[in-house]
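DATA SHEET
Item: assembly model
Revision: 1
Owner: S.N.
Input lines:
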Amino acid sequence: KNEVEQSPQNLTAQEGEFITINCSYSVGISALHWLQQHPGGGIVSLFMLSSGKKKHGRLIATINIQEKHSSLHITASHPRDSAVYICAVRWAGNQFYFGTGTSLTVIP
Amino acid sequence: EPEVTQTPSHQVTQMGQEVILRCVPISNHLYFYWYRQILGQKVEFLVSFYNNEISEKSEIFDDQFSVERPDGSNFTLKIRSTKLEDSAMYFCASSEERANTGELFFGEGSRLTVL
């Protein structure tokens, strides 16, 4: 069965800390999405990756196709980064399968 | 910046009633999706739609569900006879293309509460 696993499930950090959220999947994928879900429920796309690394502001996403693993890094974390971060992968077909999310709380 | 819009933001309905959730995808996008998230659970795929027809659907998307793009801009999800377990946040999403660069853009969600 194709699985998407995220770790950790919950993460609390002090403002300014470097944060890493991990995503592993069971079989080869065509694309991987990192998403941010706000406390109100809205979902925002952060990155879409199929290989390598992408950077946007304080956010960096990497993917290792051979190891079937992706990481989302947040540098100089801030309380406004507090949200649920979700990894979603696409295997064959046109649908994404979502992980359970990592709930991040950044304390001032 | 273009965005996906959804209405209503919250709907409360009685069990057995029909519900229509509406979405306006980003105008140049070609692929449209509905996802749902039951409270406290992960986001689940319901259906994808391309070229005026369903391209994929999940096991959740049974005969009680239907989708339509009636006028070239709106994309609707209809639940014919709602059940208690249909209570969830429903997200519409669109993407420009299906290939690996087909980034998903989500609406803010429609929260459905079935009593």
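QC remark: Chain A has a mean pLDDT of 92.
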